[in-house]
Amino acid sequence: MRLPLIHLNEVLEWEKEQSPKISPSLREAFYCGEPTLNVFLSRYARQSEEQNTARTWVALDKPNKKIVGYVSISNTSIEKQDAASAVRSYVNPIPALLIARLAVDQTYKR
Predict the structure, then answer these.
(1) What DSSP string describes 18-40?
(2) What angle do CA 60, 23, 57 make, to 5 degrees?
(3) CA-angle at 50, arms to 66 and 20, nearest 5°
(4) Using one digit for the tens of pLDDT, what is the confidence trace for 16-56?
(5) Is the peptide bond before 95 cis (omega within 30 degrees of 0)?
(6) Which residues contact 57 (CB under 8 A, 6 or more apart)?
(7) Are 38 and 70 in contact (CB under 8 A)?
(8) Fewest CB within 10 A of the end CB: N or C in the chain?
(9) Which are the contacts of 11, defined by CB distance < 8 A and separation ≥ 6?
(10) For the whole prediction, is pTM greater than 0.85?
């Protein structure tokens, strides 16, 4: 099954349109087996968006009203001396993206 990644804000809007049909919320129902990743999605992903510290993208199974998985990405940088020799000619520090959180709901893991 291939699902597009949808920005967290779009998921929240879709969830709001579905209410009160969805209980618990999509984010609260997400369970990947790692409590810290579950809590991040349900409580902190939105805060990270608002504080501009991370962007969260969600794979949403709309027909089943379930979040399949998510990835949270942050900006970061790498110091030249810590980088591979192939990129040492780049600016210092080297801009990069950090996969801060990555999780898949247990019912979709294969």
Answers:
(1) HTTSSSS-HHHH---S-HHHHHI
(2) 25
(3) 35
(4) 776 665 556 788 899 999 999 999 999 999 999 899 999 99
(5) no
(6) 5, 6, 7, 8, 70, 71, 72, 73
(7) no
(8) C
(9) 26, 58, 60, 67
(10) no
